[in-house]
Amino acid sequence: MRKIIFFVAFAALSCVSNSQSLGYQNLSLMFSRNDGNGSARFVAMGGAFGAVGGDVASMIINPAGISVFNGNNASLTFQARNTNYLTTYYNNSLTTEEDFFKVTNAGAVLTFENSFNNEWSKLALGVNYRISADFEDKFIAKGNSGFSSFNSFPLDISQNPIIYDISEDQELSNYYDGEISELNFAFSGVYQEKLHVGAGLNFYDISFSQQTVLRETNNDGNDNILNSRFYQENFTNGVGFSLSAGFIYKPTNTFRFGLSYQSPKWFTEIIENTNIINNDGFFGDTEIEVSNSDVIYDNTFGGNLPIQELLYKLRTPSKITASTAIIFGKFGLISFDYSTNNYKGLYLSGDNFSQENLFFDNQLKRADAIRLGTEWRINNLSVRGGYVYEQNPFINSISSDNLESYSLGLGYNFGTVKLNLSYKKSNKTDQYDFYPQYDEVEATQLNINNTIITIGFSVNI
After folding, report:
1. Residues near 43 by Cβ (< 8 Å), separated by ≥ 6?
2. Where are the alpha helices (DSSP H) in 251-338?
3. What is the DSSP pairing of strand 285-290 with strand 332-342?
4. Where does 2-149+175-203+240-262+314-347+358-460 sit in CATH, by number?
C-alpha cells in the first residue's frame, strides 16, 4: 500500500514521471517542514514553550511569550548535526553518514514598562532569525531489483538491436542542499499582570536543490554489458510569509495556559529550474555505454543542456497549539504543548496542479504533535529535558514513520551571560522510490537517525 501511495505521488506530472527526483507533492511537504530549531534551551526542552515564554525562540510557538521577559535579552545559537541514513534496497543495506555545522538561531527581545496605562503594565518587541528546515543531506542506495529500465543502446540502429534486459545492479546517489530561513517579528503586552497577548509577522526564504545520479548495469545474456548514468537536478528558490497570534494566561503563580495560532505559510513566488525535461527521449542528462562499442551515447553532447523553469505558489497548513505549564517557583517547571496541522490544507497554484491538490485531499491527513519539556534549577545550574512526538501526514503511514525525539540540556547562569547546551536524538523511517514509473520495483527503505548538539549564549542587555 505504501508503494502505491508514493507511486501516485511521483507519477502525477508527465515531466516527473520519468524521474527519480522528488515530485511536487513531496516538495510541498518538505517546504511545510519544521525541524524544531531554536535556542539551546528551547531545543533541550523539546520546544514546549507555548505557555512558558521567556525565551527568544518562544515567539516561534507563541508570540505572547516574549513579554514574560523581565528585561532585554539577546541570544545566538550554533548547531552541530550528525545524520545517519540506513538504506535497504532488495535486501542490500548501505549506511551514509554526514556531519553539518551552522548558526541556526539568533534573536533579541526588548521590554518596556508602561507607565501610561496601569492595565497594560509591560510591552515587548522581539525579532528572531532561525533555520526552520535544514535540507542539507545525502544518501546512497544500492541493490538489484531484477528490473532493467535502460535496456537498449540508443546508437544501435541495426534491424535487430541488442536488448540488455538482465539486471545486475542499480545505485542511486541522492544529494539535498539548502534551507528554509525564517525571520520573526513579534509584539506582546501584559494585561493586569495575568494575561500575555501577542501577535507576529513571519517571513520565509526557500533555497533548495536536489541532485540525483542513477546508475544501472545490465547485460544481454551473452557477456555484453550496458552501463548507464542518469543525472537529474532541481534548483528551487521562493519567498513567503505567515501571521501568528496567541495568549498566555496565568490564573495563579503556579499554572499557565496558552493558545496560539499559526496561519498558513503563503509562498507567493517559488521558482524552479530543472533539467527534468525531454531531451532525446530522456528526462535528464544521460550517458550510456556498452561493452561491444567504443562510442558513448551522451544526450548533452555539444552543449545540449535543456533547462525548464516553472513559477508556482504554495500554501502550507495552518497550525493551532494548546499549551500548559506548571511553575514551581524558582526551582523549575514542567510544560506541555499539543499542536495540530491539517495537511489537507496544502495547495499548489500557478500551473495545472489538479493532480497534486487531489493527492493532498485524498492521501494526507491531520497530523498531531506533542511536546514535553522540563527544567530544574540548582543555584546557577539548570538541568533540562524534552520529548517530541510528531505524526506522519500520510494516511497509510506506519507507526515508525512518525518522528520521535529525545533531548537533554544544561544551562549555567554567569549573571549577565548564560551558557546553554543541548543534546537531541531523533529517529524515523521513510521510503524513497527512484523508479516511480515502474510499479513492479519496490521503494528503498530509509531509516534516518539524527544526533544534534546545540550550544547557545544569551545576554541580558
Report:
1. 36, 37, 386, 407, 409, 422, 424, 452, 454
2. none
3. unpaired
4. 2.40.160.60
- 270 forms bridges with which residues in the sheet? 238, 312
Residue 3 is classified by DSSP as H
In this predicted model, what pLDDT tens digit does every residue of 106-157 receive, in sequence order? 999 999 988 777 799 899 999 999 999 999 999 999 999 999 999 999 999 9
C-alpha cell at 251: 490564573
Strand pairing category for 225-249 and 266-274: antiparallel
Phi/psi for 283 (5° steps) reads: -95, 65
Candidates 66, 48, 74, 76; CA nearest to 186 is 66
Q: Which three cell numbers stand for residue 370?
A: 506533542
With DSSP H G I counted as helix, E B as strand and the rest as coil, what are the percentages for the chain, rounded to 5? 10, 55, 30
Spatial contact of 278 and 307, defined as CB atoms under 8 Å apart: no
- 392 has pLDDT over 90: yes
Q: What is the pTM of this model?
A: 0.92
| Chain-centroid distance, C-alpha 351 | 24
For 341-391, give the DSSP string: EEGGG-EEESS--HHHHHHHHHHB-EEEEEEEEEEEEETTEEEEEEEEEE-
- d(CA 162, CA 170) in angstroms, rounded, equals 20
Q: Domain extents for the chain?
A: 2-149+175-203+240-262+314-347+358-460
What is the distance between the alpha carbons of residues 324 and 255, in angstroms, rounded to a whole number? Answer: 7
